[in-house]
Structure formats: C-alpha cells, structure tokens
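Hi V.,

You were right to ask for the full record rather than a summary. Here it is.
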Amino acid sequence: MTGIPAGPDRGASRVPVRGLTVLFDPHCPLCAFLKDWLARQPQLVPLRFVPVASEEARRRYPGIDHRATLSEITVVGDAGQVYQGAPAWIVTLWALREYRALAHRLSTPTGAAFARGAVLAAAKWRETRRSGRSGGGAYQWGDGWSYDPAAGWTYAPPCDGGGCSPAPTG
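Predicted structure:
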C-alpha cells in the first residue's frame, strides 16, 4: 500500500479505515518499543510505521503539522483521517485483534479520560528520558529542531561545511 496525503477533500469521516500509518519517534526508547510491540500483534487493520517528521512523512502527508507530530502521537488513516493524542492510541488499539474491545471501552467518555491520562504519563516519561533528568528539560532533535518546555520548539539549522540548510516547512 502507498500513503495517501491527509486531507478533508476525500470525505474521510465517511470512508472505512483499511490501513493506518503510525508516525513514531525512532529516537525515543518508549516509541521504538511500542512500535515493535504493535508490529508483533495480530492486526485487523494493517499498521505501517513511518519515522515522525521524516522526509517520508512529509512526502506522504504534506497537509499535517509535522512539528506537532514531534510532541504528540499521530496516526493517519488511509483515507486521510488524522488522529492525535489519546484518539491516536485508541484507533491504534482498535486495529489490533486482541485489543479492539479495549479500544471500544476507551472510546467512551470515561475511557477517553483514562486514555488521555495514559498518553500524558507516557509523554512525561518520554520527556524525562529525553532530558536525562526528572522534571524535563531541553530535547535536541537530530535535524536542527529542539524542544524546551519553557520555550517550546525552536529551529537552528544544522551546518555542515558549506553552509546551513533552510528551516523545513510544514
């Protein structure tokens, strides 16, 4: 299957989901673990994995905010549906044979609150691992982006010998 750009023009709310692409951070141990775990699970809906904010992600999904995908899990359906945060986790579980019933429970108001808490806990753990200390701190992304909880996302172009590359768009 090839990726289809995310976009509202395909009537994504009315189209069945036949495949999901999970954008994951290959530099995050938790993300890499979960990607491998998801890939081993029996799937009712095929899952594909693309590194977050990569050239492939930008090519496949030019219409999404790739900087936002660096801080919140994002899953894209084959018909252009975009899920972020707790809904992304829920739809990913929905794609798995053994976890579809749990996904239905998590889609209720009470379950959604629980799912959001789990996503926030994972984000906090991830932030702690990135900074190497409890309480967060700056995280350097390999392409020039960095995140500091106090300042947000910033971009400093990487320079190699001949000059600096321009800031990525989108």
